Input
Amino acid sequence: MSDGVARRLGDMSWTDIRDEIAKDPVPIVLLPIGVVEQHGPHLPLNEDSMVADWVAHRISERTGALVAPVLNYGYSPTFRGYPGTINLQASTLQAITYDILSELARHGLRRIVLVNNNGGNVGPCMAAAYDVRRDYGIIVGQVYPWSLGYTLMRDQYAEPDKVYGHGGEPEHSAMKVMFPDLVQPVSDETIAAAGFKSYNGWKAGGYQGAVVPGQSVDGTMFWDTSEVNPTGASGDLTVATKEIGEVWVERIVGFGAAFVEEFDKQTAKAPWAKASGKLSAIG
Output
């Protein structure tokens, strides 16, 4: 049962964690994961990590889950051409995520939900989760806030596919609520230049999308997005409002809390979720 206060694993002592592990069932741990990558001229580089951590804390307030320290770095090869993007190799992110998951599992914190907030991270994190499943027998869950927003917010826009984008909706509106001081005004020049341009004869339709004449879907080209998008932003940068952002917060945090509550219900008595042994106690 939650008391409405987020529970931060990193603020606890090791004896506090020992006592948490002794509970039946053991608590759920949320692991926020983001990336340092560009989000246009108007939004911060660390946005994905900040939002993952923020959403994890709001879920914790509603569910009582523990929040592990956020993993700020991730896999973002498509944005490496923009200054400030810090990209881990996919294998590095997979290894780091595996190490964190396996350390939690080794100590008995075996019920884990990733709060991953970057598309590039999905593959490496999924691989790490399956490796931990193989080695420790646990089943890891995932909540992906930005991706959930694209699905759950469509009714907020007359033409969602035209306003959605990287730095566009609904993340622009959501950031106005979560981190308003870090959202910069959007210049007329940025608005005019947002979107995708041609590259060596190819007409870009998206971050890896290439228009194929006569076809209704794009082909795939693994170019750097900076080669086809001079601002790094896409979608409509003019429609963001705090009111839309507040809907995003309630829907995404609401879904995340509901998922964690269902994860709790379904895993509380699972044999793999039980601590494998007791840690030695002092004091």
